[in-house]
Amino acid sequence: MTADTAFEPWHVSASRFPGDEAAPEERLRFMLSYAILAPSSHNAQPWVFRFHGERVGLYIDRTRALPVMDHHDRELTISCGCALLNLCMAVKHFGNKVIGQLLPDSARPDLLALIGIGERKIPDHECNSLFGAILRRRTNRMPFEKRAPDKGFLERLSHVAQEDGAWLHVVHGKQMRHAVAELIAEGDRFLWHDARYRRELAAWVHSNRSESHDGMPGYSFGHGDLHSLLDPFLIRNFDFAEKIAAKDQDIAEHSPALLVLGTAEDGPRDWLHAGHALQHILLHATAGGMAASFFNQPVEVETLRPRLGQAIGRMGYPQVVMRLGFGPDVRPTPRRAVREVVRGG
Ligand SMILES: Cc1cc2nc3c(=O)[nH]c(=O)nc-3n(C[C@H](O)[C@H](O)[C@H](O)COP(=O)(O)O)c2cc1C
Asked: pTM to 2 decimals?
């Protein structure tokens, strides 16, 4: 494997679609090229796919779990929900309705969804634009411009979340923003003081030259080649809690838009909905020329999660905290190829 193969998945081209005459399995296999470009916590890419006749099953890959930061596999499931949205968007873009079932239940907890190709339907402009955004979406941790996304656009994102079975709260007013930013900093301190958290994170942070097909290269945090070589060692061995807390608090407090995505309940099905909604929102933002990054610390620390809900005055369960704005271009992160995530064929 060379470093280049880690970025090949981003070069997928719709012109290589096998065509409507091809068997559903062949078409779905091609569409998985878009599913795997989804974001995931620590870029763990916790998904595998299996074909069941003319449908493809999306399975959560718990060998890629992050037990310290995400011990209920909540973010793991949300990440799979993001991949699911991409797959559904691809089915629609290539001209069909989605036949879909969201499945997580206690009998088969790892099978999250079964997706098939339904009857013909010409995709509308929005679908094509969101599909195009799959290749351009990035998590962008660089400084954002001051200008804020427009109010109408944020309202639209709230509707998108609702349609997907989630809610989106726009953190407004100085006081509420300050309260959320303080919770982010408190979350940073809690997590970074824990050596097990740092060890888990360090395992997924790689040097810029790494050939790994997953994880986060140093450049995704704005680090140069030399710094990135030291990152895993530094993260594992030093508690940077205060520095990171102060930085995140400042960024969150001055974000052009600060958003909390949540759900009414808090089970695997809700997490899948949250992931679907998250990726839908991220694609809308990308299509609108915007970028996003995350501050999930107050959701990851169990004692802070209810306080986050109170701070924004929402019932239910916060799932993801993110900022939205206009940022510089950033590079994509590595991905495993489709052949690495399809099992049994
Ligand atoms: C559910 C979820 C939670 C995430 N939480 C954070 C976070 O708290 N902080 C962060 O910097 N990135 C977070 N990320 C972003 C991932 O690190 C990122 O998606 C991954 O490294 C792949 O990079 P890409 O999004 O640029 O493709 C999160 C992503 C997902 C899907």
From this structure: 0.98
